[in-house]
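Researcher: Here's the sequence for the chain we discussed earlier.
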Amino acid sequence: MSPREFLYSVERTYPVSMQKLWDAWVKPEALAVWYAPTDLSVEKDSVQNEAVVGGIWTVGVSVPQYDMVAYFFGEY
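Model: Thanks. This is the structure I predict for it:
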């Protein structure tokens, strides 16, 4: 299976307004909080989010207990 054939879907209900949820997903500063809600931290300047068809998103999360940075990324 090629990367282009892989589809991923997530569904969940959140007790917030649609606008607040949308902002949390598309605003880079809010996306950084989403990916580092605990003792982890997001690498400076690693968050990118182009919420359009064909746009990309990426987040680098520092994982100090393993002395590594985990990168999450995708394409809309």
